[in-house]
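FW: tagging you since you asked about this chain on Friday. Here's the raw sequence from the shared folder, copied in full. Didn't touch anything.
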Amino acid sequence: MSIQKLENQVIVRNEKFIETAEQLKPELYETIVQPSSIVEIKADSQVIHGWKSENVAPASSLAESEYRKNDSFILDFGDHQVGYLIMKIRSAGSPPDAPLKLKLTIGEMPVEMAEPFENYNGWLSSSWLQEETIFVDILPAVISLPRRYSFRYVKFDVIDTSPKYRVVFESVECKAITSANVKAVERISHQDAELQKMDEISIKTLADCMQDVFEDGPKRDRRLWLGDLRLQALANYETFRNNDLVKRCLYLFAGVPDDKGKVTANVFVAPKLIADDTYLFDYSLFFASTLHDYYFATSDIETLKELWPTAYRQVQLALERLDENHILKDTPDWWSFIDWQEGLNKQAPSQAVLIYTMKQAIRLAEELNVPEKGSLKEHLEIIVEATKNNLWDNEQQFFISGSDRQVSWSSQIWMVLAGVLTKEENSKLMKCLLTENPVVGIATPYMYHHLIEALLVSGEKELAIAEMKDYWGSMIKDGADTFWELYDPKNKDFSPYGSHLINSYCHAWSCTPTYLIRKYDL
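HL: got it, structure written out here
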């Protein structure tokens, strides 16, 4: 153990856990991918973000063209890629008497090729927007860009050469990387073509997010977040079964708790393991949940024994937030994520997350036969009863949250997943939710996953499939080749960051249709 003092936190580093995680660092699979076509981006008010791509020539014809100052072209790689760009460039005409100045704009969606990054005014750093300006002094040259990118499209702007020469791009390719063995996935042949496509895109999304950790998004933030990890791990158990990568991520989180034992919401892994100073009530609890799912997928009792104290500590810390009525204190000094939905009160859904994870912690305690199982069961009974007495509104037939007694989708969904009511009562509640459609809705694929699973555990399989098709199916119709961080079918420019340019269009928490389809035999 070692103590690390950062500006706003004290981290207790468990070097044994960190070393275990390091030993589990995966090998990366590399694949050389060629672009499929040269495209133009055209305005179209009928498509998402108002821009679409149109093929103008096969990419194999690229080397037949010569480019000079102010020329440009856009390559389409035909599918989402995560990796490194490699270009082979030569001069044409007179010997090159000045450097080539080349600007690359790299994006996951057509809109990123069309709307100038200079106009971006969101509140996340513009440095996440993918672009390069490079100078090539000597031609011919083979240029390997050092930064890893997440993209489908690449725009090439020849800023300058000289009047005497032109440039030819003999080849452009991507060295795509992932720690996922795509050959290990058992392919399904689904009679429903829409669910088949959903499964395939989910697997591609997960694979592109599987690097040396389970990243939340390969474009942004490129970090290991606990909420994303939990869902990625579930999808992984049904597909790649790279369970050592889940184990590695669990040990990374357990390696850098704060001085109270709390697990951070996310970690940085380079240049060394660093705990972020963001702590989320629900994400910390999901350490116990992810450990639960990992253990029951692998029967790895040794890992369970080592990480149980960390998991149990998250529950202990969460219980400290309960008031005298055994309900979570809804005060300004905490942050629970739940969803990006504007105006969402987090009290009731967070109460449900606590119940959900406590049940999983009890199952782990029973596997280990540790004394904590007794006190956890006692606490759970009291909390469930208090939840029914204080947060259920019998008149409205909904759970309410906060001092304003807010009725939200998230509160009902998480209470169903937590099993506060019976299966029959859950079914009635979910049908009522879909019918009544409370104003405080859902903003992310992350929360849509929980909606679908809540319908499934309530026995409403057909409703679950319909909702999946309405949401992820609509995303596919809008051009998704990997599933997106954010999507609102009624407001397709939605971004909590102030600009859809900064949104991630390959994102971990959206990869779960493959889990839902396979786990629940949809």
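FW: The chain has a mean pLDDT of 97.
HL: agreed, and The longest strand covers residues 72-93.
FW: great, closing this out.
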